[in-house]
Amino acid sequence: MSAAPKLSVLIPTYRFERYLPESIESVLAQDFGDFEVIVSDDASPDRSAEIAQAYAARDSRIRVQRHGQNIGMVANWNWCLREARGEYCKYVFGDDCLVSREALRRMVGLLDGAPGAVIAASSRLVLDDASRPEEIWDDLKRPGIHEGIDLIGRCLRADRNLVGEPSAVLFRTAAASRGFDPALRQVVDLEMWFHLLLSGDLAFDPEPLCGFRRHAAQQTVANRSAHVGPVESLRIADRYLDVLAARSHMGPFALRSICHRTLYYSRKRSPRLPEIEAMEATLAARLSPGWRCLLLLTHRLSKPFSNLGRALRRLRDRLGPPPAPVLAVERLRWTPPG
């Protein structure tokens, strides 16, 4: 076997023959070449495996696995991870792509230049199903190093994945040996980022180097209709609040504020399903009646100021200069066989 590459690019795919050529082409177009590509097709009923194998016949850096039966999304992610030989791993899902030819070089450089960081991430260009740019997602804003434990707290306070989707992230392979939690279906990536951030920091590039595609066939759409996300978000909050209590500099008020905020918005937005209510009860047990009253009062007093701040930020964004245009990867001209 040849020497291990610097980077393993992992492309799990299922029924993405429409998008897979763009995903693979965006990797092969990079100005950084020390990588292997592992395409893992989860028994797609379409021509995804055939498309990947056609690329592998042209480029020895590409390996293709077609599973004989469907093993599921998270198992497919973890299969890719176990096969990775590189020092770093970079997922590029079969329906996503890289939108800058410098993406891999810049993200590898982030970790090479920051020994204390375990994750590199960038903002992402949101694409529609025809690869047209729609908007840029940039939740971290500030370039450079974001301290790991602090970032876990920020995500929990915001009740959002501020890091980004797997296609927007590169990480140290050794730190991810545990794999993605197979008990989860929706917030799988966020829980993995929390797991990694326990061992290091995140280095961020605000340029949109990666493309995240929104379309009707993605797993998130199916999970949303099944209300998978709300219960898993509560479960993750319960799991990592204890970690924050033990390892962060947050005081009792800040920690209980996260717990209260998570409960408040879950009860306000989530359907009244037994599994959601059971997880809410677990979180509520962390708060005494006195803390609940104090935190509810604080929330109600601060909410008008929070709403005003959001309105001012929206106004600033609307009146400010337009964002610099971002070009997506050049559209593909290769046609699948047959």
- Helix and strand content put the structural class at alpha/beta
**Quick one: how many beta strands?**
10
Q: Whole-Å distance between the termini?
A: 33 Å
The CATH C-level class name of the largest domain: Alpha Beta
Question: What's the helical proportion of residues?
Answer: 40-55%
Structural notes for this entry:
By secondary structure, the protein is an alpha/beta fold. The chain folds into two domains: 7-221, Spore Coat Polysaccharide Biosynthesis Protein SpsA, Chain A (Alpha-Beta Complex), CATH 3.90.550.10; 227-319. Helix content is 44%, strand content 18%. The chain has eleven helices and ten strands. Strands 1, 2, 3, 4, 5, 6, 7, 8, 9 and 10 form a ten-stranded mixed beta sheet that branches. β2 (35-41), α2 and β3 form a beta-alpha-beta unit. It is globular, with a radius of gyration of 21 Å.
Write the layout of secondary structure elements.
Blueprint: E1 7-13, H1 20-28, E2 35-41, H2 48-58, E3 62-66, H3 73-83, E4 88-91, E5 97-98, H4 103-112, E6 117-127, E7 133-137, E8 144-146, H5 148-158, E9 169-172, H6 188-197, E10 201-213, H7 219-225, H8 228-247, H9 252-269, H10 274-284, H11 289-319
Parallel strand pairs: 1-2, 1-4, 2-3, 6-10
Antiparallel strand pairs: 4-9, 5-10, 6-7, 6-9, 8-10
